[in-house]
Amino acid sequence: MFKKGLIAVLRNAFISLGALACIVSPSITQAQSWPDKPIKLIIPFAPGGTTDILGRILAQQMTTILGQNVIVENKGGAGGNIGAEVVANAPPNGYTLLLSSGSMMTVNPFLYKKLPLNYATDLTYITAVAGGPMLVSVNPNIPVNNLKELIAFAKTKELTFGSAGIGSQVHMAGENFTYSAGISATHVPYKGEGPALTDLASGQIDFMVGNLPAAAGFAKSGKIKPLAITSSKRVAQLPDVPTVAEAAIPGFVNLGWFALAAPSGTPKAIQETIYNATQKALISDAMRKSLELNGLTAILNTPKEQLDIQIKNETANWEKVIKARNIQAQ
Length: 330
Fold this sequence. Notes:
alpha/beta
């Protein structure tokens, strides 16, 4: 009797364990087999900007590392909010990722009265990827040849400056520059850095503080006039261009950065796989050379902790700047 009872208990236990395995195993299996199909990397700005340039470099390396195609898809508009919303609403399975500019999560929450997502809760930030300086440049028709002349000219005439969209780090760099220079200028937002640079070259806007990777090509070809770089030291891509601090505003530094994110709820194991693949990509010779060529420096945060601290600190700083400058999205 006891033997039969024990057998019944064991049988029921095995049945319960089997049922539990059926509940748990899908997520475990999903994480273990990931990726088994192509991955979309959403670039929340138009083609031709620095986010787009970096995204394509990263996608190429991660395709090799992960053994699945990483496909870049541009979803520009609203300072990156449109592309971010696409990722926030995607299934949290690792197959839709976002390459965001730092300003999207540190600036947009204070600029837009209504956002299509909550940057703090709807996305999981995996790591920063790269960062770099920006370039102050003017269209060829502006009668200035250095930064001091631009500042003096801006005090006699209302100028316009372009950006990759309201709240983009290109926009905020422009606001930071005009504030530090003691000048005013009208902001003209675009859906990405590429279109803004094209209009700068054609004379539709007066100046811009753009990310170096996107702006350097225009500067080297003579389509725009480079006046100053926003890093603390000159850069190899444009060695004759002085820093903003050298040229006119002592102590001025403004750097941009970019981070990889996934929908909130993405399994930890998949996040770790993405992080590890990003790490391998960043230390590869091909990506290292591409970043160097574009004036970018690789950044790899400890998952979550370091990046969360960086976002928190910059958020507090930009909140003060936005309120002081009374900057609002229309």
